[in-house]
């Protein structure tokens, strides 16, 4: 699967730029720079959610949305001998932390550290430690709390993983935080295609990159009230359940390479979902189906439940190893999500009936 060089260059730069929850601004700057030629206007709200608008004067408004934040850690406690204990910022997985290199975003710039762990020689089967928030720690080479603070590291500093983007076997994109900056890439590509293909649309299109999804869908909740859209199409990632130790009876049956995943859930509007499925069938875009019993756990819920109810739908991208530093997605799936959103946008009409009947 081939992508344009400028698109891949943007994707690599965007993914390699740290964008932890609450501190998304550097990643958002990269994203805005890329979409600027393809939209009529760019806006940023008080907390950092960015959106590019095509046809900003139009009354009927359609949102296509992803979230910009990645999971990370906070410095929570510094010991007298200079070790750092952490708390989560989002759904950070403590089990992958031991032996990982980290970037501590201190007041004097980035300081490198490592999540330490006792050597295998010192552990026994009877007393095998399990990584927990209470026992994982960061060593930044300091020998005292004073020395840590002299490095510019204090309680509240953000900690991220530096793992960078690469392509694997010409089939997968691999990086930390594909959840969900790959979504930001895909909606940006939709904007680019509309512009370069000289497509006109009879409504305002709001290409929206929300903040703070990983801690409660907060950015989407705020921006939905600001934009007040008539329709919202959200993209996020979902689990590739063909990997080991995942129970399909619980998590469903989705696979990287088999196409975008269209969700069925209470917050998903029937009309918008069926428009997406009809588009996939008409345009011969492969797709999969998945169900969520109460909430999707994505920004779809925030949009759907805002402003008295906004017709919303969710198109997900299958992903392996979520919330690790080696998240993987199929390049072919990425291309098909872009195509599905793009083709669906071209089918939306302001006069379409949205009420259940």
TrEMBL record:
<dbReference type="InterPro" id="IPR023367">
    <property type="entry name" value="Peptidase_M42_dom2"/>
</dbReference>
<keyword id="KW-0031">Aminopeptidase</keyword>
<dbReference type="Pfam" id="PF05343">
    <property type="entry name" value="Peptidase_M42"/>
</dbReference>
<keyword id="KW-0479">Metal-binding</keyword>
<comment type="similarity">
    <text>Belongs to the peptidase M42 family.</text>
</comment>
<dbReference type="InterPro" id="IPR008007">
    <property type="entry name" value="Peptidase_M42"/>
</dbReference>
<protein>
    <submittedName>
        <fullName>M42 family peptidase</fullName>
    </submittedName>
</protein>
<dbReference type="InterPro" id="IPR051464">
    <property type="entry name" value="Peptidase_M42_aminopept"/>
</dbReference>
<keyword id="KW-0378">Hydrolase</keyword>
<keyword id="KW-0645">Protease</keyword>
């Amino acid at each position: 699967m081939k992508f344009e060089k400028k698109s891949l260059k943007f994707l690599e730069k965007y993914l390699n730029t740290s964008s932890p929850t609450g501190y998304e601004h550097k990643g958002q700057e990269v994203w805005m720079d890329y979409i600027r030629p393809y939209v009529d206007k760019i806006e940023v709200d008080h907390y950092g959610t960015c959106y590019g608008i095509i046809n900003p004067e139009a009354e009927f408004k359609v949102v296509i949305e992803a979230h910009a934040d990645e999971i990370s850690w906070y410095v929570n406690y510094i010991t007298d001998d200079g070790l750092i204990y952490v708390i989560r910022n989002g759904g950070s997985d403590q089990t992958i932390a031991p032996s990982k290199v980290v970037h501590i975003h201190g007041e004097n710039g980035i300081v490198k550290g490592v999540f330490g762990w006792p050597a295998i020689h010192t552990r026994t089967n009877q007393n095998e430690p399990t990584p927990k928030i209470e026992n994982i720690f960061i060593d930044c080479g300091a020998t005292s709390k004073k020395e840590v603070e002299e490095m510019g590291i204090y309680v509240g500093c953000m900690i991220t993983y530096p793992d960078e983007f690469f392509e694997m076997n010409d089939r997968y994109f691999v990086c930390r935080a594909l959840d969900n900056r790959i979504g930001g890439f895909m909606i940006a590509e939709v904007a680019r295609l509309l512009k370069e293909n000289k497509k006109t649309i009879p409504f305002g299109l709001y290409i929206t990159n929300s903040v703070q999804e990983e801690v409660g869908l907060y950015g989407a909740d705020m921006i939905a009230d600001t934009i007040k859209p008539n329709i919202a199409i959200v993209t996020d990632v979902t689990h590739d359940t063909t990997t080991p130790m995942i129970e399909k009876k619980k998590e469903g049956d989705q696979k990287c390479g088999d196409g975008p995943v269209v969700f069925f859930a209470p917050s998903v509007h029937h009309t918008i979902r069926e428009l997406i499925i009809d588009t996939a069938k008409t345009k011969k875009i492969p797709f999969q189906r998945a169900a969520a019993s109460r909430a999707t756990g994505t920004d779809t819920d925030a949009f759907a439940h805002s402003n008295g109810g906004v017709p919303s739908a969710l198109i997900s991208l299958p992903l392996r190893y979520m919330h690790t530093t080696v998240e993987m997605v199929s390049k072919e799936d990425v291309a098909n999500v872009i195509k599905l959103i793009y083709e669906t946008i071209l089918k939306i009409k302001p006069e379409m009936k949205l009420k259940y009947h």
